[in-house]
Amino acid sequence: MHSLLLRTKAGVRDAIKPGIELAVGALTIGMLRITRYFDPIKTANLFGRIARLIGPVMREQKIGRANLTAAFPERTPKEIDTILAGVWDNLGRIGAEFAHLDHIWEHDPARPDQSRIEIGPRTHELFAQLRLDGKPALIFAGHLGNWELPALAAVAHGLDAAILYRRPNIASADRAIQEMRAVKMGTLIPAGRDAPIRLAEALRNGQHVAMLVDQYLTNGVEVTFFGRKTKANPMLARLLRQIECPIHGVRIVRLPGHRFRAELSEEVTPARNAAGEIDVQGTMQAVTSVMEEWIREYPDQWLWLHRRWR
């Protein structure tokens, strides 16, 4: 009898799942489209406040607190809570800003003080080098600040880029999100079995391949992150084994006054084995170390809410 009830419940759940996904997808699309009608800065402020209010009752709050306590053992509980509040605020703002991706990038080199995006001289130099050297490159980023904006920066400043992204599980939401991302984000390559082949092809064609590198991957390579062992996706380093090219990190962090600062790292030197070949694990450790340094500088702007250590 018990097993029959379990099978019945599972059958009901499977039967209603498509309807639930359709409803969630429709809600996502509706929210994104409605948000576009409102002032982007005021909406970001509102979404940030809502996220700060709702976040502490979500199960991810517990994950975030545990992650932060382990990463910053010297911080007091009050300091941890302050960082977490910033994490939720950042996440809420990203949700609002996503609806305005097609016009959020505002940078005028002639009037940098009046631009919403701040770009320092060294980043200008590095970006020009990437654009003009005739080489492909690997660009990594993490869930720091607004992690959707680096792809906009590439297109806005003439960099031929291919972006690896993860599709939402709900197909209808995926279509809506792809439409928004495709406006000014270069070539979008969804994560999947053929992604490494497509990314390698993009590099061979001289494109600049960009990806997020700060999430846990069960079958990844072991790296140390904030003093603890975890697993990193080795795709970037494996691509480098096929097509050697420069590696740079990119981050776009929040500044006061609803502004952002875009930064490119210096070229990251890959690790090599005794035979001079790319050492995948060592290279991913070098990349992870850059990410850690950046996160330590802006801990309230990184997504501590996922299980990075397992």
Query: Please, what is the average pLDDT?
Result: 87
Q: How would you describe the oligomerization state of the chains in this entry?
A: single chain
Distance between the termini: 37 Å
Number of helices: 10
What does this 3D model show about the protein?
There is one protein chain. By secondary structure, the chain is an alpha/beta fold. 49% of the residues lie in helices and 17% in strands. It contains 10 helices and 9 strands. The chain has helices at residues 2-35, 40-54, 59-71, 77-98, 121-132, 149-156, 171-181, 195-204, 235-242, 280-297, and strands spanning 117-119, 137-141, 161-165, 187-190, 208-212, 216-225, 228-232, 247-255, 259-264. The strands form 2 sheets. A 7-stranded mixed β-sheet has the order 1-9-8-2-5-3-4, sandwiched between helices. A two-stranded antiparallel ribbon has the order 6-7. It starts with a helix and ends in a 13-residue tail after the last helix.
List the helices and strands and how they pair.
Layout: H1 2-35, H2 40-54, H3 59-71, H4 77-98, E1 117-119, H5 121-132, E2 137-141, H6 149-156, E3 161-165, H7 171-181, E4 187-190, H8 195-204, E5 208-212, E6 216-225, E7 228-232, H9 235-242, E8 247-255, E9 259-264, H10 280-297
Parallel strand pairs: 1-9, 2-5, 2-8, 3-4, 3-5
Antiparallel strand pairs: 6-7, 8-9
Helix pairs in contact: 1-7, 2-4, 3-4, 9-10
Provide tags for this entry:
two-stranded antiparallel sheet, alpha/beta, about 300 residues, about 50% helix, seven-stranded mixed beta sheet, globular
